[in-house]
Each structure stands twice: as C-alpha cells, then as structure tokens.
Predict the structure.
Amino acid sequence: VQLQASGGGLVQPGGSLRLSCQASGFRFVDYDLGWIRQYPDKRLEVVSCVRKLNGGISYSDSVKGRFTASRDTANRSVNLQMNNLKPEDTGVYYCHVNPSGTDYFGQGTQVTVSS
C-alpha cells in the first residue's frame, strides 16, 4: 500500500490550498479514504472521511463549511480542497486507508497558515 500526499505549502490566513493523495497497492473502491492532520503538538485529528460505497463524506466540526473532500476512482486519488484557511489549520496532512485491518498514512504534506 502506498499513499502519496501532495499540495501543501505556506499560505496566508484566508487563502486556499488543494491537497491530493495518490493511492496504490489496494483495491481502491473497497475502502473508505480519510484525511488526518497532525498538529505541531502531535495531536491527531480526523479531518474528513470519504466512504467507499455511496461516496458519503464526513468532516470534523473544525473544518466543516471550509474544506471539501472528494475521491476520483478513475485516477485512484482523494483530494481535499481547503478554503478560508486559518492559522489553526497548520499541521501535517496525511491520507489514510485501512485495508485488511492495518492503518496506512503515507508520508504526509505540510500545511502552514501564517501571515
């Protein structure tokens, strides 16, 4: 299983970024895909989860209304459009999948929101 996240960077408050995660090594349509972020103090938060079957999407309260997740089955990718970014959104963003009972996170991408 490989998860390659990209798209992070430095952005001013109120700005936008689009993260993308390319997945391989498992049957893409069979699993939920999630975005998890790690704050600078190492706390983890599940930001979003895109369901496998009906594509239903859930968000944490802290990003609801600002972030939009999507999955592209043809390209085996999951994306996270982040708008109106705030300094508290700063962290390392990982995509996540749990095939066969094992968690995979990939290498993550750094998002820094600062003026």
